[in-house]
Amino acid sequence: MKGFVFHGPGQASWQDVADPGIKEPTDAIVKVDAVTICGTDLHILKGDVPEVRPGTVLGHEAVGEIVEVAGDVRTVRPGDRVLVSCITSCGRCRFCRDGSYGQCRGGGGWILGHLVDGTQAEYVRVPCADLSVHPLPAAVRSEDAVLLADIFPTAYEVGVLNGHVRPGDTVAIVGAGPIGLAAVVTARMFSPQRIIAVDLAPARLEAAHRLGADAVADAHEAPGELVADLTDGLGADVVIEAVGVPESFELCTRMVRPGGRVANVGVHGRPATLHLEDLWIKNVTITTGLVDTHSTPTLLRMAAAGRLPTGQLVTHTFPLDHMEEAYDVFSKAGETGALKVVLGEKQHAEVAVPAA
């Protein structure tokens, strides 16, 4: 089969790789129908995630069909259409019993495309399949469902829930890429007073406004002043960091009000300065986290009911074997306007214009 293989920082290729096979009694083999590229994959290619070994197939998000299951798998069978979660859960360790699947110590956590071969291939082996794949309702299209493998649970859990967004809050979201836009959508479920999106790219700010942001700000044009103006100088109740660079994190800590919450979602490859000389007196809560995907069943139900506009984030589609082209388009989002790219056997290379 073919897969997209990481060879070291700045080096990867779509090439022949060995077909995956059953290794453990809890495994399932999935034929990939739709897959997407995550900002974390770009961090891997930059060398920000040194645990990924050369020779690893990348990717941790997919929709596909079960083609084989091992003897201990009980919840799915060959022929089932499933969402492959970005997080693998053993279901037995202390963290899994608490619903903290991202911290699994039983062979799970974020392993696909990280510690084992991932989803950017024609087939993928999914360990701990009973808790790591989700049967898909027929009403949810594959290109919509694949966004529920990672970005929507991540934005919702690590951003909105960790930030404790409440009715009447002012929510500032720094970064209007896919995670930031999913945070806009899911924060709206809690009826905040206003949502302010901050980014450098006009197209992303336009998308944030279309998806529900009440105000947008260019990151180069004093967004902190806009937040202060809109909050009578107090600052935002919740600030969500959705970029993963020191400058954006430090901006978040300047925009939060006393007693407010900063929810860091971004994957950081460089140290950021924590200005405790300013923050110690402000009663600020800062959270970090890896998604647990405990919210995936809820988000799937919302998507099936038409309450979650996942498809509006998809700007480009490609055939599965156009992986290198898709990476190029996604990595040059400032030039291409890419938000999410979806690849699959039934996809054609095109640009999708989200509905206004």
TrEMBL record:
Instruction: List the Gene3D superfamilies hit by this protein, alphabetically.
Output: Medium-chain alcohol dehydrogenases, catalytic domain, NAD(P)-binding Rossmann-like Domain
> Taxonomically, which superkingdom?
Bacteria
Enzyme Commission no? 1.-.-.-
Has UniProt tagged this entry with the keyword S-adenosyl-L-methionine?
A: no
Instruction: Name what cofactor the protein needs.
Output: Zn(2+)
Q: Which UniProt keywords apply?
A: Metal-binding, Oxidoreductase, Zinc
> Which SUPFAM superfamilies does the record match to this protein?
GroES-like, NAD(P)-binding Rossmann-fold domains
Signal peptide location = none
Instruction: Tell me where in this chain the Enoyl reductase (ER) domain is found.
Output: 8-343
Which top EC class applies here? oxidoreductase
Molecular-function GO terms, alphabetical: oxidoreductase activity
Q: Which InterPro entries match?
A: ADH-like_C (IPR013149), ADH-like_N (IPR013154), ADH_Zn_CS (IPR002328), ER (IPR020843), GroES-like_sf (IPR011032), NAD(P)-bd_dom_sf (IPR036291)
Q: Record's family? A: Belongs to the zinc-containing alcohol dehydrogenase family.
Query: Which PANTHER family does the record match to this protein?
Result: NADP-DEPENDENT ISOPROPANOL DEHYDROGENASE, ZINC-TYPE ALCOHOL DEHYDROGENASE-LIKE
- In Swiss-Prot or TrEMBL terms, this protein is called Zinc-type alcohol dehydrogenase-like protein YjmD
Q: Which organism is it from?
A: Streptomyces cyanogenus
Organism ancestry: Bacteria, Bacillati, Actinomycetota, Actinomycetes, Kitasatosporales
